[in-house]
Amino acid sequence: MKGFWNQETVRFPLAVLAGVLWAMAFPLPGWAGLAWVAPALLFFGSMGLPPAGAFRFGYVAGLAHFIVLLRWMRHMPVSVGAPAAWISLSAYCALYPAVWLWLGCRFVGSRESAPTEEDELEVSRRGTAPGPWKASWWSWLDAASDYARRPWSRRAGLLVAAAMAWVALEWIRALVLTGFPWAPLGMSQWRQLPLIQLAAVTGVHGVSFLVCWAGLAIGGALLAMGFNPKSRWSWTAEARLPLAATLIVMGWGFWEVMSYRRLENAMPDSSVRLALVQPSVPQTLLWDPAENERTFAKILELSRQALELRPAVLVWPEGSFGLDGSNYGLMRTLLAEAKADWVFGSDDVAEDDGGRLLYNAAFLLRSDGSVMPPYRKRRLVAFGEYVPLAKWLPFLKWLTPIGDGFAAGDRPVPFRLGPDAVASPVICFEDVFPNGVRDHVAKDTDFILVLTNDGWFSESAAQWQHTAAAVFRSVENGVALVRVCNNGITGWWDARGTPRDVLGEPGGNVYAPGILMAQVPIGLPRAETPYRRHGDVFAAVCTALTAWRALRKPR
Prior knowledge:
This protein is of the alpha/beta class.
């Protein structure tokens, strides 16, 4: 181990700390304030390292972050695949913070590691090279002092570029290899309602930019204050613009939230009554044909209780829950008597020239007995709903429980519920893709309806992280969000991301079975949000500017 420690590796404990703090900003526990600290700890903690060393520092931090963040993947009921998928996905995602710090070195103009004057004096005095801790400390002091003595305008420009690079890499992660946009930095702020209204303009990536930029600016200002305390204007000026921008966004966001509540209060009778059913069935039982009758009996009893409350629509989560031909007939009879529509998830089979296709679909049965065209899930989960490269590497199917998997749908399908409501259904993992959900929202959409099954992950942080991502889709598109889950989090949020009613809260168990009666507003006048109109323009601009700066010759 003695040979392992050098000027670079002695900083790895700091990298691990930064990664863990970054993960703790997300549910659970969801200490959102840490999201403002972690990027600065990463960026300034890697100062003095050469680009390759900064890359390795970022990789260690990223690996620690994603291993903690994605720890819920351990609960997947696949004995071999779960740990392998958890570690492999974490190892892949860790590349992005590593690249971010590598870019930061290029932006700062960091030189390759070389002996400083202090190093040479120490060597000549003692006849030996300084130890790894002292060498690392000296290199950091040298780089931090150089940074602090730069003109404040150069420091401010550097931190804006670093925040744009953060956004660029988040966005690229959402696109590469079918995309994994899980837990962008801004998502950690999902409960800070005034702040997240920015997503209506820029998407969640704008919130990521603001959090990263402000955190870096405060860290940079403290650094400048420590190394150059006489120049008060210089170090305070660095933080003024991002803090002012944050206050302006918060003020505008507060106005947006309150204006929506006034609008809703002015139209109290425009709503649809939904009965949301959460059966909380373990994933292993959903796969077991011998448990079909017991599974159906459980959801049937909850549905009977819900229909007694006279909803306009009964909504089940993703999954068939033992629904077969005879049970389907029983449900039709119950719904006809209650005069309620029924939204439910199940497999859908179709034939084409290539043979038989299986879809993960959402269905709408109207109270008059008519069946509307189903919505077929468009974005499938790799190794959960389909096996990548299975055509060329068929043995991969043996590593998953899904066999041949599902085919992908090709278009959104709106559901008209009750007399007047229009819902845009999406299924499970689809709600973490901002641009994908944007395609589902039309001018007459009243709310996004998410059917999901997070029973794959037991009672873990996955349900909360998934919910936090979905809430941004309501803000981005300016419509309400209704989520119906197998084992949490079932509830609804208004068009500004305000939680209106969540099953099991406050004080209960959000993972437990139950029903939630949701009175969701419909027909409210609304303007199309800039994000709904233009999509990820902000993230694309950040990516283009980052690429342009990265290709310039470092100074």
